[in-house]
Amino acid sequence: MPFSNVYQDPDRAASYAGLEFPGTYYLAYRDLPQLIAAHVAGKTALDFGCGTGRSTRFLKNLGFAVTGVDISRDMLALALEKDPEGDYRQTAEDDLGTLTGNQYDLILSVFTFDNIPTADKKVRLFCSMSKLLEPNGRIISLVSAPEIYTHEWASFSTKDYPENKRAKSGDLVRIIMTDVADRRPVEDILFTDESYREVYAESGLEIVEVHRPLGLPDEPYQWVNETSIAPWTIYVLEGVS
Fold first, then answer.
1. pLDDT tens, position by position, 14-31
2. Which of 119, 171, 131 is nearest to 48 (CA)?
3. What pLDDT digit, counting tens, does each position of 157-212 carry?
């Protein structure tokens, strides 16, 4: 089945722009400040696949000087509406050449690689990102765990797509976001932990830490499976010296 990036749709972009950190999304961001503090020394950052700027603004609030990049002009326009003083740039689909010469202490990628369809493209992009790191810089790659496509969540539903359970690494999967008005299914690419580890190794990157956030019973959300199954996987990466 052919893959198309749904986030390049202007209606989808407008719907997505209203999201901040509800429900299951909260778990994607909750532990990032501690992970960043533990692994990142400086204060320059690149938000790769910034979309409407949610992660970019998140990093700015942590004190980073941030550049947000994305392939979607519609997403970037909405990012600038929310953050007129922000540094947002459009890039080609698999080319970060316009950023050559910049060096970052942190490159953050939140959900971006869910929408990059092949291992080869993933490797090319991670290789490009590693060249943009300061010598002691880190990449934090936050991706959807395969389990997110086969369970129900506070912010997502997959019950209408039982075929997801048969999906293998690299296959297209569908999921519905329940925190936005646009209920058209999102099409993602399922990618396993084993496959990501192969990509990182081929890209010359080493895993420093893997974090799988779980919901806590006392948090103010109606968790569904979040307290027992991690919906996200967060990889902290460094270049091989």
1. 655 566 678 999 999 999
2. 131
3. 999 999 999 999 999 999 999 988 787 899 999 999 999 999 999 999 999 999 99
> Which residue, chain included where needed, has tokens 């880190």?
138
Task: State the burial class of residue 113 (Cβ atoms within 10 Å of its Cβ: 0-12, 13-18, 19+).
Answer: buried
Element (H, E) at 23: helix 23-30
pTM for the predicted model, two decimal places = 0.92
- Beta carbons of 139 and 69 less than 8 angstroms apart: no
β-pairing verdict for 232-239 and 133-144: antiparallel
Q: What are the Cα distances from residue 223, in Å, to 20, 110, 142, 156? A: 17, 21, 20, 11
Closest CA to 24 of 235, 231, 233, 173: 231
Work out whether strand 44-48 and strand 65-70 pair parallel, antiparallel, or are unpaired: parallel
